[in-house]
Amino acid sequence: MEKNQIIDLEITDLSYEAMGVAHYEGMTVFVTSAIPGEIVRAKILKVKKTFAFAKIEELIKESPDRVKIELNQWVQTGLASLAHIKYNKQLEFKRNQVVNLLKKAHLDDVQVGSTLPSPEETGYRNKAQVPVREVAGQLEIGFFRRHSHDLVPLTNFLTTDPEIDRVLVAVRDILRQYRVPAYDEIHNQGEVRYLDVRRSKATGEMMVILVCLHKDFVQLPKVATDIKKIPDVTSLVLNYNPKKTNVILGKVDYLIFGKPQLTDQIGDVKFRISPESFFQINSLQTPRLYDLAIKKANLQPEDAVVDAYSGIGTIGLTVAKHVRSVRGIESVRDAVKDANNNAKLNDIRNAKYVTGKAEEIMPKWAEKGMQVDIIFVDPPRKGLTPEFIEAAAKTNPKKIVYISCNPATLVRDLQEFQKLGYTFDQIDPVDMFPQTPHVEAVTVLERAEK
Ligand SMILES: C[S@@+](CC[C@H](N)C(=O)[O-])C[C@H]1O[C@@H](n2cnc3c(N)ncnc32)[C@H](O)[C@@H]1O
């Protein structure tokens, strides 16, 4: 097999990144935008030792699961790599990912629920974070081509709230008008690296964050005056990121105008969110995810609850009124401040959040003999650490409710809890990210009776 070769392929599977999978002369070929059941004439783009990448030249047999999309770039860039597949099939794809991981781990008897669909299939994201680069002599916003930093200009991001897309385009036009340079990552020069826009579904307020190479730039006063005039924009923040790095946000924020936090609501609890704090991006699906997790926890009024990887306290503060106490752990200092302030804002007095790494704080609590009834964990994609798992089990909770955004680390961690006397019999996928291959899932671990 060689680059630019044209071959006919039968697509038999979808990869975790939602590329069509085919086999050809002992090689696995990943074909962008292809769907199982399709026969495609494909052009080979890159050849590795045992696998290759290809793109469709001609669709010979089309799958009935394919849907027409407005922009091929959504799938090609990886912004919405499932957008060409019917929504019910996307839900099946996500469930299958969990089923396959369980099979690999010889846990075939664990039940996998059907994926809980999102109330909105598009336009559900309450936040957009888009790169700003110069393309053909002009400042553009868009999305990087898969596995690259080549910007594909876009103004319709499909998965973000259309109100956010409107503001992104308006800010782009203001930056163009005042000739603010886009960031040049090769030379670490220029100015605006990313545009970050967040919208509260509860209040309609929007916060604009300009991620910049410098703390200030000559055009900033004029740019700020014009951004203030965009309807519904309530604050502007300059995030200072001077480093040559792929990390999007720098460590310092300067409030240019408006309120330093956005106010949103989940169920009947209000939340103020700082720019550095994590907040679930699918506003309508989040309360459904939490409801499922809370129902599975079967909380009792006398329960002592731990909310680990708590962000701004969304899970703990949602359950605080129904339990004895909530103790939360979160590594981002601003998020912890938000969590404790959010407790006050909602007149919740039995919840307290601390700053630190969950894998360091939990062993200390276990050491002190802290009594815990229920632990909620909601870690980032890399999952839990052995130190956290051991300490969590040591506090002897009745239940550990695991909310995960990566089924591979979820299954790995569940097996570790099993070794420590916890059992589980069901995983429930929840679609927080329609049109993308990301899978969220909830599992409850119960202490086995000794
Ligand atoms: C997936 S988010 C969940 C946040 C929150 N539970 C929610 O639903 O909004 C994971 C959170 O874990 C935090 N985090 C990452 N690594 C951590 C660690 N080692 N210890 C504690 N928190 C951590 C992140 O800052 C983020 O707020």
Based on the model shown, name its key terms.
alpha/beta, OB fold (Dihydrolipoamide Acetyltransferase, E2P), Rossmann fold, 3 domains, nine-stranded mixed β-sheet, seven-stranded mixed β-sheet, 10 helices, 25% helix, globular, binds S-adenosylmethionine
Give an account of the 3D structure:
- The protein has 450 residues and is α/β, with parallel strands linked by helices.
- The chain folds into three domains: 6-66, Nucleic acid-binding proteins (OB fold (Dihydrolipoamide Acetyltransferase, E2P), Beta Barrel); 127-265, OB fold (Dihydrolipoamide Acetyltransferase, E2P), CATH 2.40.50.1070; 282-447, Vaccinia Virus protein VP39 (Rossmann fold), CATH 3.40.50.
- 25% of the residues lie in helices and 31% in strands.
- It has ten helices and 24 strands.
- The strands form four sheets. Strands 7, 17, 18, 19, 20, 21, 22, 23 and 24 form a nine-stranded mixed β-sheet that branches. Strands 10-9-8-11-12-13-14 form a seven-stranded mixed β-sheet, covered by helices on one side.
- The N and C termini lie far apart (58 Å).
- 45% of the residues are buried.
- The mean pLDDT is 96.
- Bound molecules: S-adenosylmethionine.
- S-adenosylmethionine binds next to helix 6, strand 18 and helix 8.
